[in-house]
Amino acid sequence: xxxxxxxxxxxxxLREEIRRxxxxxxxxxxxxxxxxxxxxxxxxxxxxxxxxxxxxxNQLKTLENWVLSDSSGTKDKDLAPLSLAVYLxxxxxxxxxxxxxxxxxxxxxxxxxxxxxxxxxxxPEQVFCLSLINQKIPQELKNNIIEKIKKNITGSVVRxxxxxxxxxxxxxxxxxxxxxxxxxxxxESVILSLWFVERYRGKISPDTNLLDYWSSFEKVYQTxxxxxxxxxxxxxxxxxxxxxxxxxxxxxxxxxxxxxxxYPFHPEIKKITQDHFKSKKYVSxxxxxxxxxxxxxxxxxxxKDKSEAELVQATMEQISNPNNLIIQFNDFLSEDSGKNEHxxxxxxAKGIFKAFxxxxxxxxxxxxxxxxxxxxxLAQLITIDYIFKRVEKAKIKKR
Length: 399
What we know:
single chain, 399 residues, mainly alpha
C-alpha cells in the first residue's frame, strides 16, 4: 500500500510550469526540420480545448502548411506528424492531403509479412498517432495494422504502452491491460505509464491505483528537466505533451479512489469504508460510516438504547444547560461563540443520521434517492469523518 504521505504534488503549479515551457518551445521550433515534435506540442495545447485557444490556433497553421507542402509525406516517418495533423486540424483540405499521403506510406509498408525492425509500423509512437484517426483509415488496412500490433506488443515499457493505447483507439478493449504495464525506473517510462492510466481510466482494470503511478512520478520528478537547455538533458517534446495531458486530466476530474486514498480519514472510518468505496458501492460505504459514528457515540457515552436522532438529542442538544451536556465539543460553552459552534456540530450530527443514514437504511439500494456519485459519497464520508473526530476529541460525561 502506498503511503499517503508520498504524494505532495502541486498539480496547478506543475500545469503552469509545463504550459509555459510548451509555449516557449513551440515559438522556437522549425516545423520543416521537426514536424513530429511540433505536432506533439500542438497536441498538448489541444488538451486545453479549442475555444479561445489562441496559441494553438496560431501555431496550427504552420503544421497545416507543412502538410500541404511537397516536403511532407516523402519519408515513412512522416506517418505520425501527418496523422497528428489530421487529429488536430479541422481543415478539410489538410485532411484530404494528409490522408492521401498516409495511405501511400501504409501501402508501401503494410504488405510485408514480417515487419523489419526499422519499419514504420514497428514503431509504437508512429502507430499510436495513426490510431488517433482510425475512423479515416480503410477497414482492411485497419484490420491488418491491428493484427501487426498484437504480434509486436511485447518489449519495453514504452513499446507496450503505445501499442496498448493504439489498440484502445482502434476499439480493441482489454480492461486488464494494466497488468502488463509497469512504470519502469526512468522518467520516460514513468511519464508514459502515468499518461496511459489517466487517458484510459474508463477502459483499464478497475483495480488500477492511480496513486501508485503519481507516486512513481513524484519519485523521479526531481530528476526531470522540464526546461529545454543545450547543456542538460531535458524532457522530450512528446513526453512533455503527454505529462501535460495527464496533469490536466487529474485537475479536471480527480480520480475518486485517489482522493479517497489521499484524504486523512480516521483509521476506523477508512477501515470500514474503503472496500465498499473502491468497489463502487458508495451507498454501502456511507451507510457503514454512519453506523461507525453511531457506535462511537454509544461507546463513549454508554447510551445504547436510543435511535440515532434520539442519541444526538440526549448527548449533544442540551445546550441551554451546558453542564448537563454529555458530549461537550469545546471549552467555551459559557460564551455565545462556543454555544453556536456546539449547536452547529450537533445539528450536523443529527443531519448525518437523517440525511445520510436513514434513507440508506430504509430504501432498497436501487432506489433513486440512493443513487449517488463517487464525489458526493466522498463529501458525505468527509462530513461523517469530521464529526467522528470531533466526538472522539470531545469531553464526555458518561452516564
